[in-house]
Amino acid sequence: MLQIQNGRVLTMAGKTFENGQVLIENGKIKSVGEYLSVPNAKAEVIDARGGWILPGLIETHCHIGITEKKGFEGDDCNEVNQPVIPYLKALDAVNPMDSAFHNALSAGITAVMVGPGSSNVVGGQFLVMKTHGRVMDQMVVKEPAAMKVA
Description:
- By secondary structure, the chain is mainly beta.
- Helix content is 8%, strand content 42%.
- It has two helices and nine strands.
- Strands 1, 2, 3, 4 and 5 form a five-stranded mixed β-sheet that branches. Strands 6-7-8-9 form a four-stranded mixed β-sheet.
- Strand 7 and strand 8 form a beta hairpin.
- The mean pLDDT is 89.
């Protein structure tokens, strides 16, 4: 269990807790508020005094991890031989070691919807994934999540 305490908490529901706390268990938010009791005495505590505790941002359309700056070999965004490729999957193209994931996480982006296709009529299947991690099995939240049609 993780407890983040003493920060100004802003929730997606529009509530603000000036001396807020967030309890996280197994990677998921368990409770948010002020003066929460911690059921586990061995909880890791982060003191956010003077700081803000905000929800993570979600990027809903990007090509992170499939357009690494490695030339032709690292660009899996577009299939140049066919205009309609609904079977193309971001899951097969994402490189979780792309430094762009670290940059996104540092900016507060905790999840992204990644997919192929910027120049195709039907570009392929997107997935939703966390920006933290190095193993796709642990990063994927939903796959497939959307289809790129432009």
